[in-house]
Amino acid sequence: MRKLLLFTYLLISTAMLSAKEVPYLTGRIVDETGLLSQQTIVYLEGIMKAHEDSTSNQLAVLLVTTLEDEVLEDYSLKVAETWKLGQKEKDNGVLLLVAITDRKMRIEVGYGLEGVLTDALSNHIIRNEIAPNFRRDDYDEGVKAGVEAILAAIAGEYAANTTSEFASSDISGEIPWFIRIFMGLIFLLVVGSFTFIALFTKGCSSWFLFAFLIPFYLTFPLIIFGITGGITLFLIYFFGFLFMKLFYFKTSAGTRIFTSLSSHVKSSGGSGWSSGSGWSSGGSSFSGGGGSFGGGGSSGSW
User: Fold this and answer.
1) Cβ(180)–Cβ(224) under 8 Å?
2) Other beta carbons less than 10 A from residue 57's beta carbon
3) What is the pLDDT of residues 136-185, one digit of tens each?
4) What are phi and psi of 220, to 5 degrees?
5) Please, which residues bridge with residue 296 across strands?
6) Ramachandran region of residue 21, left (φ > 0), alpha (ψ -120 to 50) or beta?
7) Which of 131, 255, 292, 298 could cross-link with 123 by S-S, CB 3.0 to 4.6 Å?
8) In what order do the strands lie in the sheet with 293-301?
9) What is the pLDDT of residues 205-241, one digit of tens each?
10) Which helix (H) or strand (E) holds 53?
11) Which parts of the sequence belong to the TPM domain (predicted)?
12) Is 237 exposed, middle or buried (0-12, 13-18, 19+ CB in 10 A)?
């Protein structure tokens, strides 16, 4: 029993020693990397202090060299809770964390500000205000743009242009081509098989499966093939399925094809199927005011 307790103690001690420590809160900007210029730090400290003086909201920025194998979200929450950003009664703190070597960042939002600085808005700020500057290694402008956007969002003065973002962004561009090819093959194999079953099955089960597959065609192709390719594939699926079922299979040639292929679906057990999926869908002294965080915010990379 003693050996077991000793082993457990050593295991926990090792984990604690290997965990990345939270730095001291020495100011509103804590830059362990030395990448930010003094001019940028002074400017950001000024606008963040002015915002806090007028609203009591507390925003802090932390730049670290690396997360040291820590999970971004876990470490960000640990920093925010250790620093106790925001007021105790309002939970109105925000942390912008940037890990340079890992090329990751997160906006951690306190309970009290989750209604105005939403997860979606935080994600928009990361993708459209901070990341473009970081990709150019312009960390001064990236952090400056992020802080200004966060303060504007809290004040209700930041409007995310989701229409232009959707039209100009290409999610697939962030994924290596070989991973996209692999994901595309898996998608075509799995979803394509169910599409074939839906197409050559009679009755309500065919239409149920058709509707069931719509969300899959609306999401995964956008990630794998990009905006244009994803929308094109969905339109082909949606209108192509309706055309085949409502018109082509009612012609003599279509009837022969349907009869021939539907027999293969039945013989392979295609009429019975099940699926299971799990989805799980922030020179002067500065200190936190006792605010609380619950994991609200958004993460990103560049």
Assistant:
1) yes
2) 26
3) 999 999 999 999 999 999 988 887 665 445 444 555 555 677 787 888 89
4) -60, -40
5) 109
6) beta
7) 298
8) 29-31, 58-64, 93-99, 104-110, 293-301
9) 889 999 999 999 988 888 888 888 889 999 999 999 9
10) helix 38-55
11) 29-152
12) buried
